[in-house]
Amino acid sequence: MSKRILDFHHQANRLFGRFLDINDYGESANGVYDVIITHRQIEEDGEIEELIKYCKKTTKVIVDITTESGQIELFIDRFNKIINKYPYKFILISDAPIKTTINCQVIDDYSLAFASHLNDSMGGRVYYHPTGAKLLHGIDSFNGSLRIQRLWLNYFFIKKFQHTQLPLSVEFNHYINLGKGPKFYQEEFETNLKELPKSVRDTLLYKQYVNPPGKIIDIEQFNDLKHHTSTVNIVSENTIGNDMNAQDDSFHITFTEKTIKPFVRGQIPLIHSYVGLQSKLRELGFDLYDDFVNYSYENESDSVKRLEMIVDEGKRLLYLDTEKYIGENQIRIYNNKKLCENFVNKGKNIIYDIIENIILEK
What is the pTM (predicted TM-score) of this model? Predict the structure, then answer.
């Protein structure tokens, strides 16, 4: 007898879409299901009450929080209350190791971040169809939605680069300063501005961007790595520490596709994220080119100061020959790319196991 599977929050494609056809969604759900795949939205008011309408005693509820960085502690605190209240079999899937006690089965591995983000078969995921174009000396910094750390990043770009002719391609600047573009929301922009010192607000409001991009990247192509054309990539992660964002996690180190992109593209990464991310990446096997990059910023606990140090390091690298360095270290570039593929394959094996032994289990 076939299993009845419900994709309650339209999120199952992220992990299972390549391998499993799921045709029932929350708005068209009917009857009860053997397996319900849901998202971290399950913690929100009214969500679990709506979901349990489609449960029977033996229903398995798979909660997928992969590709959802940050605030894991806050989520787990709320999720534990759900687990303790309802008698169903809950399974949590995470792309970062869970360090907090949780009262259900947990499947957690960093490889799931690579398997879910490097997914050509799903819209909005990272993909790279090589064009043969050589990386050119300079800095890319293509970051997504409005967040306070990206306003700070924009401020430091203006402050550090406005009097130089150094090559800087900063897609984010275009819509922060002009007030338009992908993922720009005026109300959110103004709310975030209120959190900044007056001098920073004034700079962001009245200064135009420096070295505007040659062309504007459509949001639908934001994850196409052919647009990453520079040797250095300054990454602004979604979560960077609870000294800047009060609800950011304090000890679960997570990362998104933004961290993965420079390794796949073969760029030199400078990543603003949690303290400890660089150490975690080295532990996973990634080469961060420590002989060329000054990582004195990585243990700086002040997130704003850490970000300024990253921009300073990016500027320092622009006075060096980054094209020559990359050209002379192709085996190291290759090893990072290969490691990404290894993690994709490891993540796929975990997904196969979930499908075979949990979702489709006889």
Answer: 0.90
